[in-house]
Write a structure and sequence with these properties.
Largest sheet: 11 strands, mixed
Distance between the termini: 70 Å
Number of helices: 22
Strand content: 15-25%
Number of strands: 22
Shape: globular
Structural class: alpha/beta
Strand order of the largest sheet: 8-7-6-9-5-10-11-12-13-14-15
């Protein structure tokens, strides 16, 4: 049979890929197998032949379409799903199937399972039937007759079941703000007297102590947190890749949080559009308990729409009290959280607004200069209250969680360096870059300039890198682009720099300095022949060298700004 995983050798007699999804996934709220099959035969076939296959396999509501048309791609998906159902019938059982058009002359079909070996053997048999019918034009009935012998006497293998948590679980997803929101929720839980365990792209932390480093935003992170007997509330960052490659790590959650949907990693793992990305992210919403809450960004139409796929109560958040969609959550029996007259408030139908805290007393918002972090604070507050954190503890947690590296490393960390400021942020896509630049501008004092050290990972599409160059070009007074040493993702030297330059040129900026890496970019900005005046800010997209950047700032006598210093500088910039 074909090997599983993404790195197997091609096998013409088996699926292009057979992937075991061990938790709720894009296709089913339970474990499933995802098969990628060669659909070239269906895509190129004469319409009459396609109709004959559909009749033989009893395709439901068949589509035919012209060869290689979008309609024909749908027909191929319908045919693959029918093969799964008919093959299961040969085993005297029923199996649900979902078929979708794939990439590069492929089709994807998924079906749920319980036993790993049975699922894999059945997938190989389905692939053989599909190839026999659509590539070799064999009789469908004869091809299906081979399914039962292929599975005769096999060992079913291990039973696969997703974790059923015995403690409250908050699952957080979105494009930007996931890690910050996850960290803040864990902080609020701890302020409320319970022991949090959280997993994210930056590691696993149990009760404030890091026990694993690296990216743990997949199901492995959730499993690791739930395996710790001391943890009383689990907070799990749930990334796109984990959902697509393995599924979600738990069968259900008590609260789901979706921060936003914006362009990131498009073109990878079969996700090409924002609608497709939103569908992937909505998996955690679909598995939220009916007694739980879905905390959704009311400013994002793709996130708002997720309310319709969940039986849980909606809790909308937006920094804008005039957002008309907040009332939709209230009318559905849910809640909303927003900012009114400088206060974070909770809204409920038939109740007076509940004051939480003044926005100025929440360091994460940087005196309101960071709209993104204001939204993150609203989402985290809603999630914490939804799992029973008392309001006084929420207030205390919001007061004590800062933008500094101790609480939120790599996310809008602000450092003083004489009269200048340096802001370090991951800023890996267009939306996060715009957030970084908005904060940097809010920190730029009268007479100061904004210097930007631009960079991102090489797995972004050319269009995204180009767009980031244009965004930076429109905002920066001085623009530097940093080369990659680790996250080139196979791109040749100089390729990304050329795309950055093209994007900046679109914004009318042709004076762009290149540096070998992030650290040399910061040094170049600080030591420029024409020095940056006092009041200036250097914004660095810090993906690879955060520790080295901080060390350089400290070597020059700088240090991290306190929340009061950040707020004072924001107010001074606004007053000027």
């Amino acid at each position: 049979m074909a090997q599983t995983g993404a790195d197997r050798e091609p096998d013409p007699s088996g699926p292009i890929e057979l992937r075991v999804l061990t938790g709720p996934n894009l296709y089913f709220p339970r474990p499933a197998v995802k098969l990628t099959l060669d659909a070239s035969g269906v895509l190129a076939a004469d319409p009459a032949r396609v109709v004959a296959w559909q009749r033989a396999l009893r395709v439901r509501e068949p589509t035919v379409g012209l060869p290689r048309s979008p309609a024909r791609a749908v027909a191929a998906a319908e045919l693959a799903a029918a093969v799964v159902r008919r093959a299961a019938g040969r085993l005297r059982t029923r199996v649900a199937a979902v078929g979708r058009p794939g990439d590069d002359d492929t089709v994807v079909v998924a079906y749920p399972f319980r036993h790993r070996r049975t699922a894999e053997l059945f997938g190989a048999a389905v692939a053989e039937v599909f190839a026999a019918v659509t590539l070799r034009d064999e009789d469908p009935g004869h091809a299906l007759d081979q399914v039962r012998p292929a599975l005769a006497g096999h060992d079913p293998g291990e039973t696969i079941a997703p974790l059923r948590p015995s403690i409250p679980v908050v699952a957080v997803t979105g494009t930007n703000g996931k890690t910050t929101t996850t960290r803040l929720i864990a902080h609020l839980v701890k302020a409320g007297g319970r022991i949090p365990g959280w997993s994210s792209t930056d590691g696993i932390v149990i009760d404030g102590v890091e026990v694993e480093s690296g990216d743990w935003s997949g199901p492995g992170g959730a499993a690791r947190v739930l395996a710790d007997p001391s943890v009383q509330v689990a907070v799990t960052e749930t990334a796109r890749g984990g959902i697509l490659l393995r599924g979600v790590g738990t069968s259900v959650n008590d609260v789901s949080v979706v921060t936003n949907i914006s362009a990131d990693h498009l073109g990878l793992l079969g996700v090409h559009t924002l609608d497709q990305l939103a569908e992937v992210k909505s998996v955690i919403v679909r598995i939220t308990k009916p007694s739980g809450w879905t905390v959704l960004n009311a400013d994002d139409p793709l996130v708002r729409a997720m309310r319709s796929v969940s039986r849980a109560k909606p809790w909308f958040f937006s920094p804008d009290r005039d957002n008309p969609y907040l009332d939709d959550a209230l009318e559905a029996g849910g809640r909303a959280i927003t900012v009114i007259d400088g206060q974070i408030v909770i809204l409920g139908r038939g109740h007076d607004p509940t004051d939480v805290i003044a926005l100025a007393d929440v360091p994460l918002t940087m005196a309101g200069a960071s709209r993104v972090n204001t939204a993150n604070a609203l989402a985290a507050t809603a999630a914490a209250i939804a799992i029973g954190v008392p309001l006084p503890a929420v207030r205390e947690g919001l007061r004590t969680f800062t933008t500094g590296a101790a609480h939120n490393a790599g996310r809008l960390n602000v450092y003083r360096l004489g009269g200048r400021a340096v802001v370090l942020d991951l800023a890996h896509n267009e939306a996060s870059l715009e957030s970084l630049l908005a904060v940097a501008r809010a920190l730029t004092l009268p007479g100061g300039e904004l210097a930007v050290v631009l960079g991102t990972a090489g797995d972004r599409p050319d269009e995204a890198i180009h767009a980031m160059g244009a965004i930076a070009g429109r905002s920066a007074d001085r623009l530097l682009v940093a080369g990659r040493t680790k996250y080139t993702r196979g791109r040749p030297a100089g390729e990304m720099e050329a795309i950055w330059r093209a994007g900046a040129a679109e914004a009318g900026v042709v004076d762009v300095t290149e540096s070998a890496d992030e650290l040399s970019g910061l040094v170049a900005a600080l030591d420029a022949a024409v020095p940056l005046p006092d009041g200036s800010v250097v914004a660095v997209c810090a993906l690879e060298q955060r520790a080295e950047l901080v060390a350089e700032i400290e070597r020059r006598g700088g240090g991290e700004m306190s929340p009061d210093e950040v707020a004072e500088r924001v107010r001074a910039a606004a007053a000027g």
